[in-house]
Write a structure and sequence with these properties.
There is one protein chain. By secondary structure, the protein is mainly beta. The chain folds into two domains: 320 residues, monomeric porin ompg (Porin); 45 residues, no CATH class. It is 11% helix and 48% strand. It contains two helices and 23 strands. The strands form five sheets. A twelve-stranded antiparallel β-barrel has the order 1-8-9-11-12-15-16-18-19-21-22-23. A hairpin with a 5-residue loop joins strand 5 and strand 6. 28% of the residues are buried.
Length: 425
């Protein structure tokens, strides 16, 4: 039901943006009256137009002009909008994204990992005192010690029954902290005045701290190339202060889905779903963005859907992902523009299951405990270098979730950090 509602929302937003597009296109032709052409000196008009064009170009390359900044870095640093830059240059985009996770969520509630562990306890109400201890006047407690005149301890609490602590989960290990890092290098080139193509190469670096039922800590780490992305972006509308871009991307399953780690008492085992480098499937990523620019002020919205196709070689596919963002930016100085954005995300559970991942050992191995919803609030700053180079820009943003509801027990997000650098050549 939630998935159908999300699809309807995305379709409605796209429909509204398309209607806005046709409305603005219609406005652009009002006031063009071809029935009554004005007769004027063509040579003078041509000279005047050439002079105005020259003046405009000179103004565009003036370092003090606040309107030269291209669309990509008007937007927040962590938002990958579809865009077409205004030259035939190649553009290199470097992005670093970090997500720090330190709380365990079940629905909206933050939980103690120990609540879900299958720890061992001794029940002093079950069992019998060994015959060797009968008639000695000894008193036994649950720790296995003996109280008498000699205070000699029992070597083992063998007369008590060992059992798992009572809870409905009884996992052998639980996550307590996780850090997900992605470094992505993108290369973009215009193939026409309104269309650009981009290739994206991600490198993943994930680390996690676990705790087992005997309270022993362990660590796992995975790193490597993720799924390579290809994107085609098209400028659907550019009218005065309004710009609408659409995008269609795909990801190629180049990231590993067979990463392993060595765990205490278990040896080398398969890493959980969220520690794998890729998805193992070809994914389709349509997106649409709207940007309003008025002098130094910018406002935008962005909708993106990640659709998984088929199942991978291990018999599963990750859930679809839906994202909606609203953002704003203001050119405070010629070289500095603060940004603010709010992003709502929803992602589904995994379909199918990897036969090498035991869902009773760790909730991260359970395909039904992978989905969730989150709303993030992020603030940042974009930097420009007018006195050095107009072809270089940078920015960063930091943020925290203001709402989380996870199909847990599942690691929740604690903080977000994004950094971005762009250069054209």
């Amino acid at each position: 039901m939630l998935q159908k509602k999300m699809y309807r929302t995305i379709i409605y937003l796209g429909y509204i943006l398309i209607l806005s597009c046709f409305s603005l296109l219609g406005q652009s032709h009002e006031g063009h009256n071809h029935k009554y052409p004005q007769h004027q000196d063509e040579s003078k008009s041509t000279v005047k137009q050439l002079e105005e064009t020259k003046t405009t170009k000179e103004k565009a390359v003036t370092p003090s002009n606040p309107h030269i900044h291209s669309e990509p870095m008007m937007t927040p640093a962590g938002l990958m909008l579809p865009h077409i830059h205004n030259s035939n240059d190649w553009m290199v985009d470097y992005m670093y994204m970090q997500m720090d996770m330190r709380s365990l969520y079940n629905g909206n509630n933050v939980e103690d990992p120990n609540k879900y562990l299958a720890g061992i306890e001794y029940n002093p109400t079950i069992g019998s005192i060994p015959s060797s201890q009968l008639g000695t006047g000894a008193i036994h407690d649950h720790s296995g010690t003996t109280t008498n005149t000699s205070t000699t301890p029992d070597p083992l609490p063998s007369y008590y029954v060992a059992s798992l602590n009572p809870n409905s989960y009884r996992y052998m290990s639980m996550p307590v902290a996780m850090k997900m890092e992605m470094t992505m290098i993108s290369l973009m080139k215009n193939i026409s005045d309104k269309t650009a193509i981009m290739i994206m190469l991600p490198y993943m670096n994930n680390s996690m701290q676990m705790i087992s039922g005997n309270l022993e800590k362990s660590f796992m780490r995975t790193q490597g190339i993720g799924d390579i992305g290809l994107t085609l972006a098209h400028k659907l509308l550019e009218k005065e202060s309004h710009t609408i871009n659409v995008q269609l991307g795909i990801t190629i399953p180049t990231g590993s889905i067979d990463e392993k780690n060595t765990m205490p008492l278990m040896g080398k085992v398969k890493s959980p779903y969220n520690m794998q480098m890729g998805t193992g499937t070809y994914n389709t990523i349509p997106a649409i963005s709207y940007i309003f620019k008025k002098e130094k002020f910018s406002l935008g919205s962005f909708v993106q859907v990640t659709l998984r196709n088929g199942k991978n070689d291990n018999g599963y596919r990750f859930g679809n992902r839906y994202e909606f963002s609203l953002w704003t930016s203001y050119l405070l100085l010629n070289w500095l523009a603060p940004t603010l954005r709010i992003t709502s995300s929803k992602w589904d559970n995994i379909s199918g299951a990897d036969p090498n991942l035991d869902p009773t050992m760790d909730p991260q191995n359970d395909p039904n405990r992978q989905g969730g919803r989150r709303i993030d609030l992020l603030g940042g700053v974009n930097f420009y270098f007018p006195s050095f180079s107009e072809k270089m820009k940078a920015g960063f943003e930091i943020g925290k979730p203001i709402y989380q509801h996870l199909n847990g027990p599942q690691m929740g997000t604690n903080s977000l950090f994004n950094f971005r650098f762009q250069a054209s050549f």
